[in-house]
Specification:
The protein has 308 residues and is α/β, with parallel strands linked by helices. The chain is 44% helix and 23% strand. The longest helix is centred in the N-terminal third of the chain and has 22 residues.
Length: 308
Amino acid sequence: MYLEQLEYFVAIVDLRSMTKAGEMLYVTHQNISRAIKQLEEELAVKLIHRNRNGVFPTEEGEKLYQYCKQIIDIKKKIYELSPRKVEGNSLGEVFQILLAPTFFLPFNSIVNHFIQEHPSFIYFAEYKEPMYVFDKILAKDYSAQLIFALFEKNDYLTLKETLEESFDIYFLKVEPLVLLMNSAMPISKHKSVNIKDLENVPIVSYSESFGRENFFLYCIKKYGFKGRKIRVSGSSQSCETALVNGTEAIVTTEFALLNSTQINKYNDVKIIPLQPKIEVGHGLLVPKNAPELIIKFVDYFVKVYGTV
């Protein structure tokens, strides 16, 4: 159960319509409907029913509606603790932003400067591993009002036409995957490494969910990687420690590496190009119907950071 599901439910009951709720929240009808269905399945109760006059809560749905209102009121009270005012954001809207962790440093730096000029920009940033964000996009779950995502180049070319129907897309970086390893590992002496030669190289990958594959491993598997010594860890610190100690290597991009302060402290970590070249784009997806304040932030972000 997620807070956004409860907010969707309240909007539907208030407006008596999924379509109007979606328009108000900048969410597609399909995603609103899916969220309510998932909520009903989780609670094992029917929450709404429809007739020619619109959408109405069931008896259990009415109880949930009252609970949800209390939760949303508490959320507003929490944000009222902030000294920032919401002038220019009359609804006191909290913008939902979904980010892969590789964007952590540039996002936090730029958003803090933006808020100084636009104090009404109140946001909730949800940091999720790149594969989670990519899966959301594949499922056409566009509930966030701004998405920072990673794309393997060929995946993007396949999805490009569909994505451009819903988003304006900016690429901040496009760069090849690389292999990070300690200089003590024998393969580190190579100027580049073919993906097929990684079969017996111990590789560690980070994943928040053991049911979801690491994004960078997903990319190299598309190009013939069949590693036998892959370890999945739920701790990014554990992955970095293994790399620094020379026990395992990591597949990543240099852009992602910039967010690792631990790795950057060590001189004996080498960056080895992979062959064939696999390009990954770090993109910013802005919904076509994004609120004006989101568009201002994106314009500011692109101006400060730049695009490729």
